[in-house]
Design brief:
The complex is a heterodimer of chains A (about 110) and B (about 120). Chain A has about 110 residues and is mostly beta strands. Chain A has strands at about 5, 10-15, 20-25, 30-40, 45-50, 55, 60-65, 70-75, 85-90, 100, 105-110. The N and C termini of chain A lie far apart (about 40 Å). The chains are: A mainly beta (about 110), B mainly beta (about 120).
């Protein structure tokens, strides 16, 4: 059974702080990893793909640890607009699960 | 920026009625998906569609569900006889092919309320 596990939070963080959260996945064959952001009652939107070597996009850094089967997201200098639910998303390689498996999401609240 | 459009944005129906949710994927995309999200729960995969046929479906996607691409632009999800537990947000998504096509673009969703 495919599982993607996240701490649901909420994480209450003051504006300007750094926050990080992890996600674990159960299928060691998974090869595609993503962080999506979902605002309340809206659709998921891609925040960033996660590459094996880790990658950074502005204030956001994603890391992949294959040995321990987790990915992480770090947000630096957090803004009020970062308040959202962050979804860890995994896809197995082609020929298996074509659809994405979502975690339940980590709810982040940035406080002024 | 190209987008996936979904209609209706909200539909209220009586239990046992048939519902059709419509999606227009991004025009040059080849892979199409339906997901659902029950309020307060995670996004769940329902079905994927490629080359005019279902490529994969989850255990949620039982005989009450069907998908169709009737005219080369629309991609529809039909629920034959709705149940209370079908109340959810239904998201359509699509992706292309080739480099950088690993990413799904989601529509804004259709909220289904079954009474």
């Amino acid at each position: 059974r495919k599982e993607v596990e996240q701490d649901p939070g909420p994480f209450n963080v003051p504006e300007g702080a750094t926050v990080a959260f992890n996600c674990t996945y159960s299928n060691s064959a998974s090869q595609s990893f993503f962080w999506y952001r979902q605002d309340c009652r809206k659709e998921p939107k891609l925040l960033m793909s996660v590459y094996s070597s880790g990658n950074e996009d502005g204030r956001f850094t994603a890391q992949l640890n294959r040995a321990s089967q987790y990915i992480s997201l770090l947000i630096r200098d957090s803004k009020l607009s970062d308040s959202a639910t962050y979804l860890c998303v995994v896809r197995e390689p082609g020929g298996g699960a074509d659809g994405l498996t979502f975690g339940k999401g980590t709810h982040l609240i940035i406080q002024p | 920026e190209p987008e996936v459009t979904q209609t209706p944005s909200h539909q209220v129906t009586q239990m046992g009625q048939e519902v059709i949710l419509r999606c227009v994927p991004i025009s040059n995309h080849l892979y199409f998906y339906w997901y659902r999200q029950i309020l307060g729960q995670k996004v769940e995969f329902l079905v994927s569609f490629y080359n005019n046929e279902i490529s994969e479906k989850s255990e949620i996607f039982d005989d009450q569900f069907s998908v169709e691409r009737p005219d080369g632009s629309n991609f529809t999800l039909k629920i034959r006889s709705t149940k209370l537990e079908d109340s959810a947000m239904y998201f359509c998504a699509s992706r292309g092919q080739g480099p950088g096509a690993n990413v799904l673009t989601f529509g804004a969703g259709s909220r289904l309320t079954v009474l």
